[in-house]
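note to self — DONT lose this again. spent like an hour looking for the file last time. sequence + predicted structure for the chain T wanted, 576 res
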Amino acid sequence: RQTAWGPAIDFSRPQTSAFFIDNALYWLDEYRFDGLRIDAAHDSPYSPSSRRWHNVAYLDCDAVPGADAAPRASAAVADADAALIDWPRVLPAKLRRLRACFDAWRASDDPSRDTYQRFRAAGGAALDAHARFDALQAFCIEHGIGADWRQWPAQWRMPGSAEVDAFAHAHADTIAFHTFLQWCASRALGDAQHAARGAGMATGLIADLAVGSDRAGSDAWAHGTTLLRGVSLGAPPDLFNAAGQAWGVTTWTPAALRADGFVPFIELLRAAFAHAGGIRIDHVLGFARMWIVPDGGSPRSGAYLRYPLDDLVRLVALEAARHRAIAIGEDLGTVPAGLRERLSAQGVAGMRVLWFERDANGALRPPSAWDRDAIATTSTHDLPTVAGWWRGVDLGWRRVAADAEAGKRRDDTPPRDVAAPAPNDASAHDSDEIVQRMAFGHDTVQRPEPGKPTPPPASPPELLAAHAERATERAALWHALQQAGCAPAGAAAPPADMPPVNAILGYVAISPSPLALLPLEDLLALDAQPNLPRPPCGHPNWRQRLPRTVDTLFDTDVRTRIAAVVHARRSRGRRS
């Protein structure tokens, strides 16, 4: 039968139990339903379902227990030739493969089963709640109810309800499957960190702690009113995003943190430090004040909500010391007065990015003048890569994004050829058509033959002016590279299609910062940035594949860049 909010359940299949929700009859079929429809629309790592538990979409299907005895990966999983990852197609196939691994492992007498049981016991009610959510969400997607728990039948919106308990009892195998996936992810990270330390790396992995979690995800479902409701976290208008930002994520209320003795925050930190030598805290500015945007409102209509900064920073410092790890705070944007000094006082390093290190007149600051209590980096996932900036790839996308935003402001519809965004989802899949038509050297488009660059399409005056300004900025950066001894004195700046990536990496590396973080995209000299933090405009956020497989990633050019960075770091004392 058809309900008001979804299709009928197939009554022709064997059933195990049934109950009513909102006057609709649900049959629970633990044999037919396998929990393999995790939401694929939210592919951004900064809009996670949970900040404490892992995104199992990143698991290596061939490296989990039971993989040797399970059927091999389907073509959808193995297809690595496409320029973009098709998450809605790949993820279900990947989950089917993982379920086959789980079934094979469970049927065996593998000694790791004891380790899994200890992991599940240690995870306790929090792990069980996350697994219940994933199973419920898969069920609701499969039966047309939808992935957003806020649209589920009322009884399923309450984690402690009798109906949720009944579902979990009927689908105990599926709940176990999702806890198995979390165990596999934790084990994989632990193995990676062990290998890194064993190879002589002092820090090893640095985990990334998102500023919030998806309002339609596991954390928001499990933690109820202790998280902000009816608003989105974001950022006020600034020079980088004149319209401001609303990220579609939420976090704890300040009152809930204090009332709970900061226990949820401490547990989150311990989970992040568990298999890492450090953490990077995204948008650490939110420790002091968080820009919140009412649902349906413009980011311009947001307001600041203050948080207990000193308590949060001290807890980060304490957990970092307990784990003998480092802590980095992404302190970029509209920085509250005194924040950086308070972070530094507790040993939490800030971040200094090449593009933003300028003096009062706008000139690039020499590396020797960069802060000593912050890490140095060329770029971030939200900013242009070194090669992309030099070639002006970001200028083309900036123009497309501006057109999209202008169209939205005019009549609340996207401009021609730009896909409409999904509600409250800045990472929704955008139109691939516009990606294929971009001819700015983007890595998702077939690259031209050496010496024969593809000419850009006809450009509006604003874009031509932006490219002219970028030419001036390239000259200024090249002069700064020469002044720092990273480029030959007297040499002319390379043309736009020949970015001096090695020299720019060396420029950042010679700063007095205790740590230099270089994005993989810059080590590989890629044009495309992973994410464009603007309203959807066709940019393939979080979907771009690396150009080569892991075993061939570090070719001669990459090894040369790494050697240049190592040399620059070691020569810092001689330059100062």
